[in-house]
Amino acid sequence: MVTVNQQRFPRKRTYLMCSPDYFAVEYAINPWMDVTTPVDRDLAVKQWDRLRETLVGLGHEVHLLTPEQGLPDMVYAANGGFVVDGSVYGARFKHEQRAAEAAAHHAFYEAQGWRFIAPSETNEGEGDFAYVPEAHGGLILAGHGFRTEIPAHAEAQEALGRPVVSLRLIDPRFYHLDVALAAIDDENIVYFPGAFSAASQRVLTQLFPDAVIADDEDAMAFGLNLVSDGANVVLNSEATRLAGKLKAAGYTPVPVELAELKKGGGSVKCCIAELRH
Ligand code: ARG
Fold it and tell me: Which of 62, 170, 231, 261 is most buried, judging by how many CB atoms fall within 10 Å of its CB?
């Protein structure tokens, strides 16, 4: 018997990205970073550019943040803020090495006229916050355990006026929420249960009974670090198994190669912040 795939519909998105012009692995603040591994910056820029072109090719709008010398992780634009309903909850980085990135993001939002809420608590923007607009009327999922601190979850809820569900990350390889979980459309998510505490896994099962479940192989290939428009799922090309699962669920996987940026501990999603009006 043939099962008919559910039809998925894309929604146009607005994204923010930052070219890896100064990308390097000069310090190690997550288990993926190894300062002795050589980085090919030109290749990183090429791969990043392919990612940007892929998003534009899918009909999305991509804004660019100007990269700054001395901020090698600035390419991971997801970490600079979290935008919901036209409001921006600013980032406050855990590590000193990335602290100055927050001001660059702040300046961008200010110049573009977004409502900006400055944070008092440590949080790394969309690295640890995800938004599912049609789930329970609009739900923010928030990670803690490695970077973002729990008080920031409450602060984000006050700043954005949407319920925040706190989820505890327990595996240092999955130090940000966005390497373990992603929204695949306006209602549903995909995630790797092993990255979360047992209690947080129960919370996710309760809220998203129909979620696509990824395994450790998918997660280790940075497959969860994806961006979806509701139909097209842009993900790391090494995550072939997860691509198959998403295809079976009716989505269209769009693989991109980002091997150089993986050396910094990030992939597709880390390079992209979604600007939600
Ligand atoms: N080297 C960066 C860090 O450790 C990688 C950030 C990846 N970004 C993300 N959204 N997961 O902070």
Answer: 261
Secondary structure of residue 42 in the 3-state scheme: helix
Which tens digits make up the pLDDT trace of 168-222? 999 999 999 999 999 999 999 999 999 999 999 999 999 999 999 999 999 999 9
135 near 207, Cβ under 8 Å?
Answer: yes
* Ligand 1 centre distance from Cα of residue 240 (Å): 22
Please tell me the pTM assigned to this model.
0.97
Nearest to 165 by CA among 201, 192, 212, 195: 201
The residue ranges of DSSP E strands in the chain, in sequence order, are: 14-18, 61-65, 81-84, 87-90, 115-117, 129-132, 139-144, 164-168, 181-183, 189-191, 212-213, 227-228, 232-236, 252-256, 273-274
- In the residue annotation, 270 being an active-site residue is answered as yes
Residue 255 β-bridge partners: 235
CB 32 within 8 A of CB 173: yes
Q: Which of 18, 270, 271, 277 is catalytic?
A: 270
The sign of the CA dihedral 217, 222, 224, 228 is negative
Strand 273-274 and strand 14-18: the pairing is: antiparallel
Q: Is 60 a catalytic residue?
A: no
Asked if residues 228 and 251 have their Cβ atoms less than 8 Å apart, the reply is: yes
Q: Residue 222's beta-bridge partner residues? A: none
Q: DSSP for 27-39, please give it.
A: S-SSTT--TTS--
**Coil, helix or strand for 82?**
strand
Name the residue of 18, 30, 71, 177 whose CB sits within 8 Å of the most ligand 1 atoms, as the mutation to test its pocket.
30
Please report, as a single letter, which amino acid is at residue 189.
I
User: How many helices (DSSP H) and strands (DSSP E) are in the chain?
Assistant: 7, 15
